[in-house]
Design goal:
With 241 residues, the protein is α+β, with helices and mostly antiparallel strands. Among the domains are: 60 residues, Winged helix-like DNA-binding domain superfamily/Winged helix DNA-binding domain (Arc Repressor Mutant, subunit A, Orthogonal Bundle); 74 residues, Ferrous iron transport protein A (FeoA) (SH3 type barrels, Roll). The chain has 8 helices and 8 strands. A 6-stranded antiparallel beta sheet has the order 3-8-4-5-6-7. A hairpin with a 2-residue loop joins strand 6 and strand 7. Helix 1 crosses helix 3 and helix 1 crosses helix 4.
């Protein structure tokens, strides 16, 4: 029997948890209830109720290890939420001039109210960008999510040159920190040294050198350096502005 003290499960809660699951699974991480709850900003109890509802709707199931995974229909719906979210982030940065560290928070609100017609108009207005301001791929209108080859910066060998592709963590304070170092999507980074035993990386960005901790480097996705990655928009504002 439902707990009368439990807040009702809303469409917004369902979409936020679907998005959290999709993000975690894209990072090859097990979807733990605590992480889903943190992203959706729900209590563990509320998150448990939402996940049970998603299972009941056939959008989420458990693999042989008992871990939560999205069904095919769950993946399709989660991709739709991600698409609206990342288009919204582009709207706030490219059109409204909001700094990149504030776009995620605003998009978490707007994504729930965009209709299919509004989504199509928004994509056309933005010239169909390929990525969000943080470099994450924007799913296509039919639910396909590009999977560009990349690895985290903490796995790059010394004396390697790479280009930043995506920032996996969109917390405002973290993004401001990266921007202060010039660690933005499409920035070229040279890994000069890698300290042993889990120590920091010595990196060069432009003319500056920094010691970057493994935890921070593990949230930055990179690809082999050189060339232009195509970007997310032809006329892009500077991310750190």
């Amino acid at each position: 029997m439902p707990d009368p003290s439990q807040a009702p499960v809303t469409d917004e809660m369902l979409e936020d948890c679907l998005q959290a699951l999709q993000r975690l699974l894209q990072q090859d991480r097990s979807a733990r209830l605590e992480e889903v709850a943190a992203f959706a900003r729900l209590t563990p109890e509320s998150t448990g109720a939402v996940l049970a509802e998603l299972e009941g709707r056939g959008l989420v199931e458990r693999d042989p290890r008992g871990c939560l995974v999205l069904t095919r229909e769950g993946q399709r719906q989660a991709a739709g939420v991600l698409r609206r979210h990342r288009l919204s982030e582009r709207l706030f940065t490219d059109v409204l001039g909001l700094p990149w560290d504030q776009a995620h928070e605003q998009a978490m609100r707007l994504e729930h109210s965009i209709s299919p017609v509004g989504e199509a108009r928004l994509a056309n207005l933005l010239d169909n960008p390929a990525t969000c301001p943080h470099g994450s791929p924007i799913p296509s209108s039919d639910g396909r999510i590009p999977a560009p080859e990349s690895r985290t910066l903490d796995r790059v060998a010394a004396r390697s040159r790479v280009r930043i592709q995506q920032i996996a963590n969109e917390e405002a304070e973290f993004l401001r920190y990266l921007a202060s170092l010039g660690l933005l999507p499409e920035a070229e980074v040279t890994v000069e040294e890698v300290a042993p035993f889990g120590g920091p990386l010595l990196i060069q960005v432009g003319g500056a050198r920094y010691a970057l901790g493994r935890e921070v480097a593990g949230r930055i996705l990179v690809r082999d350096g050189g060339g232009d990655g195509g970007g997310g928009r032809r006329r892009r504002r500077r991310q750190g502005d």
